[in-house]
Amino acid sequence: MTFTHTLGALAAAALLAAPPAWAQAGAKLKVGFMLPYTGTYAALGSAIENGFRLYVQEQGGKLAGREIEFLKVDDESDPSKATDNVNKLIKRDQVDVIIGTVHSGVAMAMAKAARESNTLLIVPNAGADAVTGPMCAPNIFRSSFSNWQPAYAMGDVAAKRGHKKAITITWKYAAGDESVAGFKEAFEKGGGQVVKQLNLPFPNVEFQALLTEIAAAKPDAVYTFFAGGGAVKFVKDYAAAGLNKTIPLYGAGFLTDGTLEAQGDAAQGLLTTLHYADGLNTPRDNAFRLAYAKAFKLQPDVYAVQGYDAAQMLGVGLNAVKGDVSKKAEFGAALKAAKIDSPRGPFTIAKNNNPVQDFYLRKVEGKENKSIGIAVKALADPGRGCKL
Ligand code: PHB
């Protein structure tokens, strides 16, 4: 070997051994929140951010040894602005990871941009089935649920409770459509029938005409997907119309999560299914709730848990790649091998990067969604159309 070859080899070896540029410079990890900070889902966005920040704070402000810089975009739950908004984080701010969002329509545009730019994306709420279905990708993960999951669990519960004819009512967009489809799949498998599907545009809350239609049709049960401000109004209107006395109302648990303070008496006794509940009374959940209440002077809800767990998932993946987000395959492999120690109870990540988790049956008692048991254990999204 010649002298110059030796030098070249030494230089190459030194380069290989050297830590990446960001590590040498001690660069901060750029985390971009794309969440709704205004509109019907505003409270959900802030709970997610709170939960995420709480976990990071518990780790001393760092994940995998890297300090964190937060950037924020308000997506307004508006799909028409979603591509421009997500590109503020990807192209302008050049974030290392995006945490977002709540609304399924916005999340699908984010997933497309994340796929095209190979940016790490962790979805801390939006259930769009496509994100862990046909649009699934090695760099896209979810800390929450697919729309199919809680809905399927409730369809199963409603059928087992002996209901035969159900009407569904929801917002006409991906989350509502997919929630109704999941409910219908399990309910009809259990011998029930969805006899009518009622819709209104997101985020409208003019429910009166549709409630009149339900009252006239007299089904055995009503299934619904609403969340945030819309859920508050729907539960109140359902009770004001007197329907809570005559036709049992079931929902994906978003109907009553983070909303009970505002719904008051109208929500009492409602049954919902969700991957989180009050009264779990595990050491893990108790510690989380105490820390959250102390930090934010608020009670946590499912959104806070999903934000907290998005940070936990990011931490697990980053630890495996020593903070180097470019190693997407190793990052994903670590998550699939992990058990996430969530306040909701431990969960795993399936091949399609969606949580496999228990769904609780909850009953509203006072200001709480009390767990009254597990509706479906370790429920995995079917991941239809995902080729991972
Ligand atoms: C959704 O759009 O996927 C969505 C929004 C709010 C929720 C749940 C799902 O609470």
Automatic annotation (TrEMBL):
Q: Does the keyword Zinc-finger apply?
A: no
Q: Which InterPro entries match?
A: BCAA_transport, Leu-bd, Peripla_BP_I
Q: Which UniProt keywords apply?
A: Signal
Q: Which N-terminal residues, if any, form the signal peptide?
A: 1-23
Q: Quick check: keyword Signal in the entry?
A: yes
Domain Leucine-binding protein: residue ranges: 29-366
> What's the domain of life for this entry?
Bacteria
Q: Which family does the similarity line name?
A: Belongs to the leucine-binding protein family.
Output the PANTHER family linked to this UniProt entry. LEUCINE-SPECIFIC-BINDING PROTEIN, PERIPLASMIC BINDING PROTEIN OF ABC TRANSPORTER FOR NATURAL AMINO ACIDS
Q: What is this protein called?
A: ABC transporter substrate-binding protein
